[in-house]
């Protein structure tokens, strides 16, 4: 009863705080950073740092392309940046690696799918990370059954599915909705129980140019395992049309995928020390790993690079905030945010030191502003006032949420630490980001120098002001967290 009463009171307080005007002293302090914002903006838009982020990003992803966990490429990329930020003349005061044990080591191997009947066609495919191979890595040939939903699948019995290949043509209702529906609703278990020998899944994305999307998948403990492979939107729709016409569909599926023993990876951490409160930390982050396709330029090398360049810009301009800015490059995000989870667990007794957390992991195509979670009175006022200082760059806006703002910092925001994710409309569920997400198309070509520069400005200004203002960024009260 008491918890319910607190919740009701908190809800009333939450509504009322939205009606308050911002603290005038707080507004005045943040508006006092106008000159600093102008310095940062001029340096990036018209100065020596114009295009710097694009150039550094291209150099990095051209050299280290398929940074999947367990690979030497990933560890070499981490060591490359470690050496860079430990070298003489580095802008960082301290750079180090923290181990993340037991990250998955999955190897794609050779894979191919052929449509044999009613016509012959080689299909573009990508097995899902964690998928098993076909028996002995040899092709399996079988008739196909095409379904569009879990309900569609449940209308079939074992006699209709056993020994066949299930094609899942679920359509697209937004990336997260479609992914949850397809990959995390025990779908594989249901198909396995019906006796299927393989599953082909339509890739999740609003657009495809014959481009399959990979991603993580996990079998439930004790269930029969079978290959799970992504096919293109075009092929999934074609197979559905054939199936509805009553044509017999025969497919040949081959996969050499293999899961090796877990390996060690590392989060890479670099501190830009604060002048007055160096023990208090503003985290600016992105993840360094990607899938074994494309270059991982937008997912998420662009996100991590805007954080690194932001601090470099501060150093070039002689800007040193009161609190420490900590760049963290998370490992093993694609495998279930394992790097950030391990870091959080290792540092959960120090959470009072973490003032604010930032992450970009939804594209750096055309930054619109910030997705913010935290206090809705002075905290939201700070975000609004920071963005108002950038009106000469873009009409940046913010969106408050009580939940998810970005993947790897979820552990921190769930614990009540305020934070922001970069808001990019192309990173919305049906946005352009998902055209290329987890595909061979995630290449440097999708990035734009001017858009990256705007993202760096937004990121640098936000991180600097939050790390430099007189008072720590306000946290949600325990009562408010109950409402959330």
Report on this model:
- This protein is of the alpha/beta class and 484 residues long.
- The chain is built from 17 helices and 16 strands.
- The strands form two sheets. The protein has an eight-stranded mixed sheet with strand order 1-10-12-11-13-16-14-15, sandwiched between helices. An eight-stranded mixed sheet has the order 3-2-9-5-6-7-8-4.
- α11 links the parallel β11 (277-287) and β12 (323-330).
- The two termini are 18 Å apart.
- Residues 1-19 have low confidence and may be disordered.
**CA-based gyration radius:** 24 Å
Number of helices: 17
> Low-confidence runs (pLDDT<50, min 5 residues)?
1-19
Arithmetic mean of pLDDT: 92
Strand order of the largest sheet: 1-10-12-11-13-16-14-15
Question: How would you summarize the topology of this molecule?
Answer:
Elements: H1 2-17, H2 24-31, H3 34-45, H4 52-63, H5 72-86, E1 94-107, E2 111-117, E3 121-123, E4 125-127, E5 140-147, H6 150-154, H7 158-161, E6 165-168, H8 175-183, H9 187-193, E7 198-202, E8 228-231, H10 233-244, E9 250-255, E10 258-272, E11 277-287, H11 297-316, E12 323-330, H12 338-347, E13 354-359, E14 367-373, H13 378-388, E15 397-400, H14 410-414, E16 419-424, H15 433-436, H16 449-468, H17 478-483
Parallel strand pairs: 5-6, 6-7, 7-8, 11-12, 11-13, 13-16, 14-15
Antiparallel strand pairs: 1-10, 2-3, 2-9, 4-8, 5-9, 10-12, 14-16
